[in-house]
Amino acid sequence: MLIRMRRLILIALLAPIAFPFAASAQETIAPSVIISEVAWAGSALSLTDEWLELTNLTDASIDISGWTIDGAAASSGTLTLPEGSIIEPYSAYLIANYAKGNEKSALAVDPDFVTTSLSLSNSTLLLSVRDDSGLAVDRAGDGGGPFAGSAETFLPMTRVSAEDGALASSWSTPEQATPGEPSVVITETMVELTPQEVVAPEPIEVTTETETIEEVETVEIVEMTETTVSPEPAEESLPSETPQEPETMFFPVGTLIINELVSDPVEGQTEWVEIVNPYNNVIPLAGWSVRDASGKTTPLPDQLLGWKQFVLVENPAGKLNNDGDTVELIDPTGQVIDMLEYGVGDIPAAKDPLSLARTTDGTWLTTTTPTPREANRFPEPEPVAEQTQEETTTTAAPQQDTEPSEPTVEAAQSAQATVVPVVTPAQPVSTTLTLRLSELYPKTTGNDVTEEFIELINDGLNPVDLQGWSIEDASGKRFRSTSTNIAPGSFVTLPRSLTSIALNNTGDTVRLVAPDGSIVDEQSYDTSKRGEAFARIDGTWTWTTTPTPDEPNHLSIDDNDEPERVGPAHSSQESAASSRRTSTRRTSNVVRDVTIAQARSLPDDTRVRVSGTVVALPGQLGKQIFYLADEQSGIQIYRHDAAFPELSEGDSVTLTGTVSTIRGERRIKLGNNDAVTVHGAGSATITDTAILSIDETMSGRLVRVQAMVA
Fold it and tell me: Is residue 626 within 8 Å of residue 616, measured between CB atoms?
């Protein structure tokens, strides 16, 4: 009897991390769409001739309309794919800055999507593709420099593996770019496993064909060795030597993320934290845990978590505080993979019956619809009836009985609250810039509730109407003023009893916000002493022991005499040292209004406020920096989290920060409470100069040179 048998050996490989164990085919989730080619370097025709390619790895068409790519737009923004975007089976989808035939384009094929919004970083590349539900599909880069490609030959970064695009091993530099053609070879790969790597044998599917009528089934145990897969029954057992310890698994930050939590449950229910896997991979949860601010940990269940799958941690150890807490997601090595701190800053604490949930853009909101083990949902706000011009006019009429009797203090908005925009005429720029913060009194000698105040000054030549103007602190708590006029050169004092804004004794930030929402003035301070006010005196902010509400600010006699004061119980050297320490503490928060050239000449750690024009955008020379210049000088502006407002070349801005130096280059470093105020669009100042005239004094400026290319 002649029997022919075909043996099909199925071995599953988990991506993006090569785990030292085997998994069944049912536990493997294959990627569908991947980033396959990234032309971050531009071309010989233009450095902005960038393009990006996606590849469909399946045998079915995929509609990618409304999908987004984080990090693919200017300032590491998000690019949205248009309606009607389809990737055919095993085909590529090309996104480019310029169309084929454009004078700046080197493309020989027509892109599927042409947009000048495309901007790929040369130094901090991190792209994330998300489907129309907001869940991550694939990524490229790890936030550092590109893994492959060349700025000299303009070759792209090309995908060579469907494993995690955040791994350098998934990319290489090709001999030739292939825009519009799938760059990943889709093949069935045979993976060899050594005896030490075999944890448990996987099922082996054996199909049979026979030329006889007699039905034959054969099942064989196949031994896997380093070089061969034997079709014969195993005669020998595995080596008896001590098995090697499994390799330590490395999980990149964000491999799994915290997605939703309930810290103040409805009576009779429990607290819980929800974890989701946002990527095309399968993650073993053995050894993972969540940890609260007290350091207590709760293990995750020992299971596998696939793409878009959720796992719930119920009743975490230590209990989640209702008013605020920290939740960390810890991998088996102890590394923090994701973290959420709620109840502070912009992330609220969710009160019964709300949950705190992550939105598709990564922000956190409370929702009335908790969704354990499901995608998050946020109720649509109720429609707000629009006022007609006649209604607006009637409402604005000066009728005494229609004036509001309640204090005009804005309570914190919940995620479900309907925000009705207040439409008020914008103040002219010349008037807006004359209204300033003048004095802050955080730690009083009596009752802070009744004695704290924020003082404003109108240092212009015209009265300013405060209708629609706001004051807010670092937490976002805001007070909106009613109609009050400030005469030229006059002050207005806003007590805490009116604003309900409590100035923190350990440091805070106060912002003056115009009716159009722009920040006109901003001031931060560190720890305050009892009885001292932080005041603007002769254009400089300093501490004074003489608070002066509704009056011009000044230093007290003690403040002026203190550096020279010598106490009878101390030597002159001791008194001098004490005076220097006092002086340092008092001037550490001073913000100096200076030109860019003056800022460049000041020592490091000096707080400054400068104005200028944006000449290089974030992402052009680095994600965390942009360049600001005026007619005399220029300087680098740096922020560690790249949280800049939307900027355009030529924008006129004012900012506050700290002078520092990095690798010999002067810069202004922005802290968490420092803001960049955009006054309006303009044009960047370009200086014509000769190449030989360029020196360090022109650092940070936009120049134009004429020369002959040799």
Answer: yes
576-581 average pLDDT score: 30
Q: Are residues 29 and 168 in the same domain?
A: yes
Is the pLDDT confidence value at 640 over 90? no
CA dihedral of residues 645, 35, 121, 604 (deg, nearest 10) = 70
Q: What is the DSSP letter of 253?
A: T
Number of domains the chain is built from:
4
For residue 359, what are the domain limits? 257-367
Question: What CATH number corresponds to the domain at position 596?
Answer: 2.40.50.200
Distance CA 162, CA 185 (A): 9
Q: Who's near 225: CB < 8 A, 6+ residues apart? A: 194, 195
| Shared domain check, 548 and 670 | no
The arithmetic mean of pLDDT across residues 583-612, rounded, is 75
Q: Which two tokens stand for residue 34?
A: 């991947």
pLDDT per residue over 238-265, tens digit each?
A: 444 454 544 556 677 788 999 999 999 9
Residue 657 pairs in a beta bridge with 608
DSSP state of 450: H
Q: The pTM is what?
A: 0.30
Q: Give the model's pLDDT for residue 572.
A: 31
* Cis peptide leading into residue 398 (ω within 30°): no
Query: In this predicted structure, which of 190-194, 195-199, 227-231, 362-366 has the lowest mean pLDDT?
Result: 190-194
36 in Cβ contact with 42 (< 8 Å): no
157, part of any domain:
yes
Q: What is the CATH number of the domain that holds 338?
A: 2.60.40
pLDDT digits (tens, 9 = 90+) for 310-359: 999 999 998 898 888 999 999 998 888 998 989 887 789 998 889 999 98
H or E segment to which residue 471 belongs: strand 470-473
Same domain, 129 and 82: yes
Residue 170 tokens read as 């998934």
My answer on whether 55 and 168 are in the same domain is yes
Residues 277, 357 within the same domain: yes
* CB 162, CB 31: distance < 8 Å: yes
Query: Between the CA of residue 268 and those of 264, 350, 604, 681, what are the distances in Å?
Result: 11, 17, 57, 56
| Stronger pLDDT, 647 or 237, i.e. the higher one | 647
Per mean pLDDT, which of 50-54, 148-152, 411-415, 677-681 is the most reliable? 50-54
Which of 555, 570, 604 is where one domain is finished?
555
669 close to 604: Cβ distance less than 8 angstroms = no
Helix/strand/coil for 80 = strand
Q: Which of 130, 150, 172 is the last residue of a domain?
A: 172
Main-chain dihedrals φ then ψ at residue 409, nearest 5 degrees: -105, 125
